[in-house]
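Changelog excerpt

This revision adds worked examples to the README so contributors can see how folded entries look when concatenated. The first example is reproduced verbatim below.
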Amino acid sequence: MPFFPPVRRICAPALLLSAGLALAAPLAAQPRGGPQAGPREVGVIEAAVSEVPQSVTLPGRATAFETAAVRPRIGGVIDEITFRAGEHVEAGQPMFRLEIGSLDAALAAAEARVAGAQAALDGASATVTRYRQIEGRGVSVADLEAAEVALSAAEANLRGAEAEVQAARLERDRATIRAPIEGEATRPAVTVGALVTANQAEPLAMVTRLDPIYVDVAASSSRLTEARQQIAAGEIRALDPPEVSLTLDTGRRYEAEGRIVDAGAAVSTSTGTVEMRLQFPNPDHLLLPGQFLRVEMTFATIDAVLVPQRATSRLADGSLSAFVAREGRAVRVELTEAGVFNNAWAVTSGVEPGEAVIVDGLSNLRDGAEVIPVPVTLDERGVVVTDEPEGRPARPAPPVAAAAEAPVAEGLGERVRRFIGLAPGETFAEGAQRRWQRLMGLINGAEAQG
């Protein structure tokens, strides 16, 4: 039968020791003087005035620079298609050819009529010349006048025949359907053998010029009016011309810069916006008509202090605030901002140049708390770079960590210290470990006796 009484006798001191440890732990975790004993270190940066661009981001759609429909100007049957879909064509380049057999015949007939008219003109001219030589000697004046009329009629007939030849040649030339503009050709809407008519409604193909390309945006009329008022009042400095950049639908920035070609002259009655047209170079045809894009337009600059967004917070009333270090204390200030630039607020009031803005150590920081400003550096993302300068002493350990390593006699009352039975100078962790080892030894010895 197992021997239980010694175990029960041993468990009583174990419970007492556990209770003592539980009572002593909170006391050991707190240094003298409460949770905030002395000033705390905070990372600060020096506020400086910068020239901050004033920009607006607008949605836009790409629009072709030029678009032309390819249509036949005469009727006929498609005999040849001389381009491929997507091919770049030059202005005047042949794209379709119609059958020209009947056109050649019409041209030959017109040329024959020119020859006949020329022969008739030559005969009439000879008659007039002969009549003038023998006028009054068997040729009356009436005969001469009749011959001159016939000569004029022959000249008119010749000019008419020559015009018919020109028309026949033009018709034959129009049998070759050419590109109206330079650009990219779509796939043909017809095939060889199709019958087409002059100026038909359906185009045979489309040609689109993509370089350069337009981007159409709609800007708020109220925002434009506000910007004009700020420029007139001298609050911001206008950029002439404005800087225009583009972000693709993939999120990547477009390399080429654009320009405004149409600033708009009317406000839409339905949307309250002003339609603007921008132009961008597009040599690689990266931008296509109908593509959704984001346009960033920088129209002015302003002098402001850049305060990192990580150093700010919103108060209950929605106002923007930050902490600055003044005379060894953290002071909360209310900020007036004029937009965001590079992960920072552009602040026009609330922080003066040269002040120390607290950007690190903001957790549980209260207005009026004692602080020790430590200059820090921020990277391009606004993150603090922890780079301790050489020769600078290490920062003191946090109060809780220091208390865990301090002798218990400095943090515990005399009564608790006697209860736990710590040796002089022994830490709480060392005392707890020693008592636990002793307790386990007693338990193991009792089990061995049983």
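The second example, added in the same revision:
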Amino acid sequence: MARKSRKFSAAVILLAFSLGFSVFAQAGSDAQEASSKQDVKQESKKDSSKKKKSKKKDDDSPKKARPEDSWQMLSWVEDDPDAVLKYEVVIEEEVGGGYRPAVTLQTEDNTTRMQITPLLEPGYYRFKVITYDLISRPAKVSEWKRFRVYAAHQPEIRDVSSRVSHSSTIYLEEYNDGVFTIEGHELFMPDKNNTSLEFTDYYLVPEGKDVEDGGIVPEILEGGKKNRSVTLKFDIKDLDTGDYHVVAKDASGLYTELGSKNELSVRYKKPFDLDVSAGYTCPIVLVDNTFKEFMGSQVWPISAVAKVTFMPFKHNWGYLGIGVTGSYTRMFYDEGNYTVDGNMITAHGLLVYQFPIRFRVKGTNQRRHAFTVELHGGAGIAYFMDYQYHFPHGIDTPKLNSTDISAIAGLSFQTYVTSRIYVEAGIDGFMAFVPDMKGIYLLPQVSAGFQF
């Protein structure tokens, strides 16, 4: 007699094997047995109850099926149901290498599905199906099929804590090895060898997802005494920011309810980053020769650049946000008989992606933010301002101005000197859509910045 659960006295579940034979003539090989078991497990999942938190209860919604509704359910396939009056199911229990009669059941019609009543105790069994024809005579007998009845326990989780932080909340800025201690009741080890009559599966379900959809499967490190605790290990790279629930699911299909006691939260200490930087750039004109022809150069070193980024969406795969960047360039050319000067000003709105790189500080659980790789792109304007020729004797041409739409894209690399101060190096490329002047400009740049 298997040990009874405190909440379910003598409750058991059956994983029976679906029969797929032409009027019950199928060999009972181990491979076929394993295949049948998988089919029934999937069927059981569809009938399991779905318990999760809900902010609003809908009294009119249909009630979910309970896991026990599908316990000890037998089913088989009949090729000629119109020739069948009823079925008889003979079940025997495996005892000491042999078998002894357990129960014999009959269907009321030619249905090929029935639930065993009363429920069998946990153990190993076999069954065969006898087909009765329309004049109530035994017509065909299937081969024996072996199955297993699992013990049913209601798992309970009372606490989830990280081995490093001793809390159910972890911060991605900090080092964490992904090991968690789960405390509660009826927390068995998984059935690795497919031989146990009682076991528990564990996984991590994101907030808002259904338990039946599954989740992140951990590595099982060890079980505790009297099945009151278990140690799990998750890959931290799989844990994005958000709330999760650690779910323990019994062999019977019973699982822990979703609540605060089995909740796991993944956060950043800083909900957003605001980066401000300013520095030097040197525009280089590519493709178009207008500046070369009229101002004698394609490189303009008297320049400055500034950028502001706001990163409110922080995930383990990187940060997403918005930003603005602008540059100023002073242009001057002395031909000898005359001079030419002007100013180029750019301003662009950006969509920004950042990937921070952190290293663990030796001897602590802290992770130092060492580098950030950034990709950005956007659109804006290029303003060519006050371009003018100056001739001797105070003769000047009228000033030329042009405001044009432009697009920009770039890559930068930030190195953090302290937790807030960084040095940034990168290169942007932008194109100003100026009639008759399709220039592409490169802006290599070096800046210093501060993160708020």
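Reviewer comment on example two: The longest strand covers residues 367-391. The domain at 12-51+67-151 is CATH 2.60.40.10 (Immunoglobulin-like).
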